[in-house]
Amino acid sequence: MNFSKTLTTWYLENKRDLPWRKTTNPYCIWLSEIMLQQTRVAQGLPYYRAFTTEFPTVFDLANASEEQVLKLWQGLGYYSRARNLHATAKHITYDLNGIFPSDYKNLLKLKGVGEYTAAAIASFSYNEVVPVVDGNVFRVLSRYYNVTTDIASAKAKKEFTLLAQEVMSKDNPALFNQAIMEFGALQCVPKNPNCTICPLNASCAALSLKKVDELPVKIKTLKVKNRFLNYIYILDNKNKTTINQRTAKGIWHNLYEFPLVETEILESDEVVLELIHNKFDDISEIILMETETIKHKLSHQHLHIKFWKIRRKTTLENGLDFESLNKFPFPIVLHNFIENNKF
């Protein structure tokens, strides 16, 4: 069985109708690939449409403010992608005269563009013969060829890239790359794939060896840090509030948030109350907004969040009303809180 031909035939019959597949414009492909890092297509698609409407060209994106970009990105997560996107748009606009690099090697030099994204743009925009290797490709190749290398190991990327290079179509690399990724996303899925309807089932090594559920091998486990965040939603005597920008490196860099009391462990409400009283004076009222802690899971951190509303007798300098508050980019968990607690 011709692996490449079978995949591309399946793809042409089963592919999803996605806007970035209807163009070779490197700006659109770059935008979609950055958005789809660590993000499902269903979640990323509305953001892609919003960005291409608001910023139809790389020049428009470059000339936007960082706050505009972060606000439009709000809720998509991994906000360093948005900051890198904006920085790269400026570089392409002002340093490269608005012209994207046209080959894999030079695409790799762009900020926020790794091997996978560079290969995708080089392949889909310029039809360069370079394999795109993502989680879907790891899964399809490891199952079909019974590759037992730990995909979290240092040597895995090189091994799978060489294998993909060997089996990919040299005549139409863009079509092959799209096909193998889509096959992994829709057919050769992580859990309980329907192998009975798979066009590769007659020659799939994992299926014949009854190892479908064991491949790909991934041994490395991610250490997750727990953080305990108490956000202080302040209302002054004019019913206005205040926010801060997160300028330190780490999660939510350059996004906005309410004043914060963070503790090393999960403290009792009494302890948090004391910490709040130590931090703010002139408190006339203090209320725990929700008794249940909100759990917000990031890839490497689990955030345990509580919101406290306090009223102060003073007038806040540069206090914000609700409409002004909504113009700033917030982490989605804070945005949702604001939407549900209009003042």
UniProtKB/TrEMBL annotation:
Binds 1 [4Fe-4S] cluster. It is an enzyme of class 3 (hydrolase). Its cofactor is [4Fe-4S] cluster. GO terms for biological process: base-excision repair; mismatch repair. This is Adenine DNA glycosylase. The keyword DNA damage applies. The keyword Iron applies. Signal peptide: none annotated. Belongs to the Nth/MutY family. InterPro entries: A/G_AdeGlyc_MutY, DNA_glycosylase, HhH-GPD_domain, HhH_base_excis_C, HhH_motif, MIG/MutY, MutY_C, NUDIX_hydrolase-like_dom_sf. Adenine glycosylase active on G-A mispairs. MutY also corrects error-prone DNA synthesis past GO lesions which are due to the oxidatively damaged form of guanine: 7,8-dihydro-8-oxoguanine (8-oxo-dGTP). It catalyses: Hydrolyzes free adenine bases from 7,8-dihydro-8-oxoguanine:adenine mismatched double-stranded DNA, leaving an apurinic site. GO terms for molecular function: 4 iron, 4 sulfur cluster binding; 8-oxo-7,8-dihydroguanine DNA N-glycosylase activity; adenine/guanine mispair binding; metal ion binding; oxidized purine DNA binding; purine-specific mismatch base pair DNA N-glycosylase activity. Keywords: 4Fe-4S, DNA damage, DNA repair, Glycosidase, Hydrolase, Iron, Iron-sulfur, Metal-binding. Residues 35-186 form the HhH-GPD domain. It comes from the Bacteria.
